[in-house]
Design a protein that fits this description.
27% helix; alpha+beta
């Protein structure tokens, strides 16, 4: 009986410690400022199954459900941080101290903007706007709130003279 209580107590302490480390990591990421909530879908396929894909505004194929709406699969919730001429993107549910993705300002090309549809509405935050982008040839989608979107587009447009910036 005492052993079961000790094991249960140790499990509770480990769970609480894990939650504390999640919170501490997020505080350390946000400490330097310039952070915003940002979901990411990396390497969106240019073509899905022909029966379940419909051309988007840029002519590329967007993954769709049988109902013709974008799929909610592939979205990862994260926190993005401005750091000079790049955005560092961190997964929320991770213990890694380093960013998972680095997006350089000069390599980001904004293709289109849209509201979440279908299953995406459940996978993303309620006020999110989806921004379809291309980064070094990789197609990706970022989902963020209106305020964060305004800041992100202003950051892209504020590139130093001579940098190629493409904002749709």
């Amino acid at each position: 009986m005492v052993l079961a209580l000790l094991v249960s107590g140790a499990v509770v302490v480990l769970v609480l410690l894990g939650l504390f480390v999640f919170g501490l990591r997020r505080r350390l990421i946000q400490r330097s400022g310039g952070t915003f909530d940002c979901s990411l879908r990396w390497d969106v396929p240019p073509r899905a199954d022909t029966a379940a894909a419909v051309a988007g505004a840029d002519g590329a194929q967007v993954p769709r459900t049988d109902a013709g709406e974008p799929s909610g699969k592939g979205w990862v919730y994260g926190v993005a941080r401005y750091s000079g001429d790049r955005v560092e993107w961190f997964r929320v549910f991770s213990y890694a101290p380093r960013p998972r993705r680095l997006l350089e300002r000069s390599a980001i090309e904004v293709i289109a903007r849209r509201t979440p549809q279908g299953e995406e509405e459940l996978a993303l935050l309620s006020d999110a706007v989806v921004l379809a982008c291309r980064h070094r040839g990789t197609r990706l989608e970022l989902a963020m709130g209106e305020d964060a979107l305004t800041g992100f587009l202003a950051w892209l447009e504020a590139a130093p003279p001579g940098q190629r910036v493409n904002v749709a």
